[in-house]
Amino acid sequence: MIEIRGAGVVEGDVTLLAPTSSRVAQGGALVVRGPNGSGKSTLLQLVAGLRVPTTGSLIVAGDAPRPRSPEFRRRVAALVATPPLARDLTLAEHIDLVAATWSGPGRHVAGGRVLDELDLGRLATRFPHELSSGQQQLFTVALVLARPSEVLVFDEPEHRLDDDRVQSVAAAIAARRAAGATVVVATHDDAVEAGVGGDVLHLGRAAA
Ligand SMILES: Nc1ncnc2c1ncn2[C@@H]1O[C@H](COP(=O)(O)OP(=O)(O)OP(=O)(O)O)[C@@H](O)[C@H]1O
Questions:
Q1: So what's the architecture of 2-202 in CATH?
Q2: Ranges of each domain in the chain
Q3: Which of 2, 82, 176, 202 could form a disulfide with 24 if both were Cys (CB 3.0 to 4.6 A apart)?
Q4: Considering only CA atoms, which residue is closest to atom 16 of ligand 1?
Q5: Distance, CA 147 to ligand 1 centroid (Å)?
Q6: Residue whose CA is closest, atom 11 of ligand 1?
Q7: 173 CA → ligand 1 middle, Å
Q8: How confident is the model at residue 112 (pLDDT cuts 50, 70, 90)?
Q9: Mean pLDDT, range 60-87, rounded to an integer
Q10: Which whole-number Å values give the CA distances from 81 to 34, 58, 61, 140, 142, in the listed order?
């Protein structure tokens, strides 16, 4: 499902990601670990098609990542940076928007359950700016989980979350995996690694 073939990124004289190889089967998970600056986010950006490798290549869901391709976007959902949120849409309305976008003939996306799954249901009528920073983080995770995907990519989903919420997020990701999704997660948190399961890829500190 995902093949990372010696993929690396160099910009000028800076190595963002040393050449890296790994493989994840459908329904599998790759947990990316490593110190600050080792290239975890860069690797996830490659998988999500937000960056192009300067060496090596990747295959994600059968093809090179192409973020403008509707087919690629239908298959790959990623949280690798804070997404833009509408100030005048409630949490439930954001979820409805995502569900409506990805629903279609023969496809019904039930996004509403995601808020309850992450214990955000009681905040459904709030605006995003009326959330705590941890609740905002949970909500950005919910937005990714609300849409259909075959591949899920999360960069440090534990950011700003307390231990219970980290467990909830890890369980939600593991549930998608159990349903057949392939998962790539970068994390500094042992609970995320344990909760998501799968293989662990350790990145070392980049040379420059
Ligand atoms: N736009 C950029 N231009 C130049 N160097 C960059 C750029 N973005 C990141 N880097 C460098 O690339 C390296 C890898 O960064 P990256 O964000 O992928 O690391 P990370 O493992 O995700 O770190 P963290 O654990 O702190 O999130 C770092 O040394 C960083 O300083």
A1: 3-Layer(aba) Sandwich (3.40)
A2: 2-202
A3: 2
A4: 39
A5: 28
A6: 16
A7: 25
A8: low
A9: 93
A10: 18, 21, 21, 9, 14
